Amino acid sequence: MLKLEKYKLFKRKMVLVLMTGIFLIVLLQEVRAFHVHEYQQKQVEISEKHKGIFTDSRFDGYWKEFSQVYHNDALILKPYFFDGDRQKTVKELFPNASFDIYFGSYNNWGELFYTMTGDLKCIPIFIVLVFSGIFSYENECGMQEILLSTRNGRKRCSKAKLKLAFIVTNIFYFVVILIPITDMLVMTRGSGWKTSIQVNIWLSSCSNNINNLGVLVHTLFLSFLSINMVVLITLLISFLSKSPVISMCVSLGILYVLRQDIIYGLSGGGLANYIVSLTPVNVLDVEYLIHLNTVRLFGFTVQWLYIVEVVYVIVLAVLAVVFYKTMSKNQRYYAA
Fold first, then answer.
1. Most buried residue, 98, 182, 223, 270, by most Cβ within 10 Å?
2. What is the rounded CA–CA span in Å between residue 145 and residue 138?
3. CB 215: neighbour CB atoms within 10 A?
4. How many domains does the chain contain in total?
5. Is 19 inside any structural domain?
6. How far is CA 227 from each of CA 21, 140, 154, 220, 284, rounded to the nearest angstrom?
């Protein structure tokens, strides 16, 4: 049955067109990232030359060398690091850090996270467009009635569809995510993996003691959970829906109605941002989750990133059970 479902899936031209299109987007992103890495190569060398615990003297040595090579960039960045001609202190630069900041290369990793986030956000669209009709099409064309009249009902067919959806999605996910990681490692050999995320200006106010490698690990873990949750949600909606169009619209609505930029513009921050960050598509932006910092929970201060990871593990498990029970109730056969 799995071979039959695979044949039916890849016989659809839309599937191959979507895969080709996403791979083209990923490759174009890598061409851009390649030129960025080339431009930043000297910056990586300078940063690695001065790597270590962030101190005023260490940064002073880095800044003098950096401003000579990247004069225009230094003019743009100077207001972040200097108050007039006075170099800001470590406490002024990283107000929420109660730990030592490790300085090193950061631009190459920032580029990696930016590229990965863009690439990963293409996958939910692929999942919805490809798999939203995998069950609902049977309902629409009357195939469900035929399957339910057979000896095994929908059981074997449903299991094959389920396996195929997860296998294809996860293979596609791993290929998409390995391309930018491999590109970065080839270009910079992973330089700066130990650098604290606070060295990235946008994350300078973060209170999470984590380095670039840690962000990558969290990105891989959360994106894996998120992508598989999107598959489960899409399959569940398709299983319950009687029309592929309806299941597609509902799935896209759940994934994309709550956008971070719109909610932030309307609310200006606060609780709404934390709630919206929990949607499967928004979770793919791990740097944004880190930027949200901490929340108070049962009297304890906890990093929002860790709360999201725990929530996703629990919700994914519960959703899997719900989907299994829903399938069990609707796949039994009856006499024709």
1. 223
2. 9
3. 24
4. 1
5. yes
6. 19, 27, 25, 11, 9
Looking at residue 234, its amino acid is T
Report d(CA 62, CA 73) in Å as an integer: 14
- Can you give the residue range of the structural domain that contains 186? 2-54+94-329
| Letter string b/e over residues 99-133, b meaning 16 or more CB atoms within 10 A of that residue's CB | eebbbbbbbbbbbbbbbbbebbbbbbbbbbbbbbb
Highest mean pLDDT pick, 12-16, 38-42, 172-176, 188-192: 172-176
The 3 state secondary structure assigned to 43-55 is: HHHHHHHCCEECC
Q: What is the pLDDT of residue 102?
A: 94
What Cα–Cα distance (Å) separates residue 101 from each residue in 52, 59, 182, 192, 248?
8, 12, 27, 13, 46
Q: Give whole-number Cα distances, 310 to 222, 228, 268, in Å.
A: 10, 15, 26
310 CB neighbour count, 10 Å cutoff:
10
Q: Sorting pLDDT into bands at 50, 70 and 90, what band is 270?
A: low
Is 63 a member of any domain?
no
Q: Which residues pair with 193 in a beta bridge?
A: none
Residue 102: phi, psi to the nearest 5? -95, 125
Looking at the domain assignment, is residue 60 inside a domain? Answer: no
Token representation of residue 199: 């060295």
Amino acid present at 9: L
Please tell me the predicted confidence (pLDDT) of residue 264: 59
